[in-house]
Amino acid sequence: MTPEIRRFLPDDEPALYDICLRTGDSGEDATALHEDPALLGHLYVGPYLSLAPDLAFVAEDEHGVAGYVLGVRDTRIFEHECDRDWWPDLRERYPLTTFPPSGRDAGLVRLMHDPPRAADEVVAEYPAHLHIDLLPRLQGRGYGRRLMDTLFTALRAARVPGVHLGVGLANERATAFYHHLGFTELRRDRWGLTLVQYL
């Protein structure tokens, strides 16, 4: 089976959570780094599937879903919707005292309770944002570009002027991929880079 790009279906959610974990250490497998394997997905997959499922696309081969791209049209609206509809239940399930304070999982829980906000200078011209992850078996074969092109087509149809994304400083392979697609660096912070592109 030649891998296909298609819209997300509700049954895909466990696979997307798994891909998020298996690429969650700057593109490498983060399974051994987390006591709770669902935490990364709760932060970087779940809210998109819940609040913007029409902008969720997957790459599927004969072994199953092996990649995804998730996006939102308006980051500010998405942040407000998360505050209203996504974070409250998670904050009840994961109090700040759930994990030892020095661990990675504790850091993710802190993000649930105090999520970062996109900078005004970013969303003014690039209101959309996205997350993309592919398992190694699909990397380097053009499927990342195909996923991005599929999302960009949907964003352009919605008359979105620009899109941004964040990438950690250690993830050099992903940064090179984004630059190859035409993204440029807008901000450099301690956590990483903000890359942008007009649509």
UniProtKB/TrEMBL annotation:
N-acetyltransferase domain span: 3-199
UniProt-recorded Gene Ontology molecular function terms: acyltransferase activity, transferring groups other than amino-acyl groups
UniProt xrefs under InterPro entries: Acyl_CoA_acyltransferase, Glycosyl_Hydrolase_84, GNAT_dom
Domain of life: Bacteria
A Pfam family: Acetyltransf_1
PANTHER family per record: O-GLCNACASE, PROTEIN O-GLCNACASE
Protein name, per record: N-acetyltransferase domain-containing protein
Native organism: Actinophytocola xinjiangensis
